[in-house]
Amino acid sequence: MKGKLPSIISLQCFDAVCHHLNMTYAGEALFLTQSAVSRQVKNLESLIGRKLFYRQDNQLTLTPIGEQYAEEVHKILSSLRAVTQKISSNTKDTKTIKLKVVTEPTFAIAWLMPKLHEFYINYPDIEIDLGTDFEAVTRNTRRCDFAILWGNGSWPHYYAEPLRHDTFLAVCTPRYLRGRKPVKTMREVANFDFIHQSSAMSTTDEWFLKAGMTEKEISMIGGQHFDYFIYLLQAVKNNIGVSILPEYLVKDAIIEGELIVACEESLKPSQRFHILYDKERQDDYAIRQFRKWLLSHKNDM
Question: Which residues form the HTH lysR-type domain (predicted)?
């Protein structure tokens, strides 16, 4: 039987007979005659070359091969029914699957939300419940189905898969830098009106430590302090000064001339974006599809 596959109707008949152990009842369940069901089962046995049922005194029992085949056929038919219902545009009562996704506010606003419309078009059966309480996820005080977080990959309660590295740039507006030139070294950025990131994983600290400054020297750099990149970006656009921001957040504004690079050097941190999920749930439909969609866009960031 190499290369041959049984028909769907023969598998459906076999599955129904396995359930009822009666050709007549199986036929009624499928709206077929008893003889039609019997013919389909015999065709299946002929294709396989093995007996699937013992037939004695009008009683049916599965052979050992029949029991093994019945289990697999039932799984295949159940899976086929599920996927057919999922993609059917005529199914009005198709249930949606909710996926709780957590990321940090800037990434959500600047990158993820503008692209979610595309995801909804391709996966209308998945509803994204987007949250930005990423610190609660980091502390494991709140669980989620999926997260996109920046860090070193160490989240004990989740499987962390690297998504992408990013480059950090010192940026400002052309108006702020008017009459001056971009500096050459990372250390010289401290001579500008500086806008600090004040979160636990501060790009301010990482930038100036990389430049060779001490923690005491960094603490003496004046300027404004904000938690999230989205706030730093707005401060930069309002001509307050220079800040260190991820390239994915500012590259369009640089191309359009709204922002300029204020330092010839840049920072490639050891940390990166990761996607997080429960390893035991990696084959869940919503997690699998959202992961695949994200990875297809990792070079767009």
Answer: 6-63
The Cα–Cα gap between 66 and 267 comes to 64
The confidence band for 57, taking pLDDT boundaries of 50, 70 and 90, is confident
Contact between 197 and 232 (Cβ < 8 Å): yes
Nearest to 196 by CA among 240, 218, 165, 226: 226
* Burial class of 129 by CB neighbour count within 10 A (0 to 12, 13 to 18, 19+): exposed
Cα 233–chain centre separation: 26
The whole-angstrom distance between residue 123's C-alpha and the CA centroid of its chain comes to: 12
Domain count, the chain: 3
Q: Are residues 34 and 174 in the same domain?
A: no
- What would the pLDDT profile of 218-237 be if each residue is shown by its tens digit? 999 999 999 889 999 999 99
Residue 108: CB atoms within 10 Å: 19
Q: What is the pLDDT of residues 77-109, one digit of tens each?
A: 888 877 776 666 554 555 688 999 999 888 899
**Residue 210, domain member (yes or no):** yes
Domain containing 192 equals 168-261
**Coil/strand/helix, residue 60:** strand
Q: pLDDT by residue (tens digit) across 247-271?
A: 989 999 999 999 999 999 999 988 8
Neighbour-count burial for 219-255, b at 16+ CB within 10 Å, e otherwise: eeeebeebebbbbbbebbbeebbbbbbbbbbbbebee
Amino acid at 144: C
